[in-house]
Design brief:
The protein is mainly alpha-helical. About 75% of the residues lie in helices and about 0% in strands. It is built from four helices and no strands. α1 packs antiparallel against α2. The longest helix has about 35 residues. The termini are far apart. The relative contact order is 0.15.
């Protein structure tokens, strides 16, 4: 269970970096505040669950979300949708092994990840349509 939790922490960190990169491209940055708050909350949750499971703090490495040079809005949205989908799959796997409040929290993160994945895919589709029209 430790490896999926560690992956989940890394994916959450990488997704937040990509969202910050996307927010820099858009004038409406307050829209992203809720996503950033949720990402920080999820990171704290999974760090705590990791600590409970492993008995040690998670080791921090470089997340796979390095800033992509000249990444387009469409590419960032697609990448965020993929990250959220991966988070949902990992949450589902981890949730099976948990109980009580930790299971409820994992299930909530699972639902949020599915919602965000769908929203980012819809935004990417809108961006693709906008590109073809222009």
């Amino acid at each position: 269970m430790i490896v999926p939790i560690k992956k989940l922490i890394g994916i959450t960190t990488a997704a937040e970096k990509k969202a910050r990169q996307l927010a820099e491209l858009e004038a409406d940055e307050p829209t992203w505040a809720g996503y950033f708050d949720e990402a920080r909350r999820q990171q704290r949750l999974w760090q705590y669950v990791y600590y409970l499971a492993a008995g040690v703090d998670v080791e921090y490495g470089e997340a796979k979300g390095e800033k992509e040079a000249d990444a387009s809005r469409f590419d960032l949205l697609q990448s965020l949708a993929e990250a959220e989908w991966e988070k949902a799959k990992l949450c589902q796997e981890i949730s099976r092994r948990l109980g009580g409040a930790a299971k409820q929290a994992a299930d909530q993160v699972f639902r949020r990840a599915l919602q965000y994945s769908g929203a980012f895919l819809a935004m990417a589709q809108d961006e693709l349509i906008r590109r073809t029209v222009d």
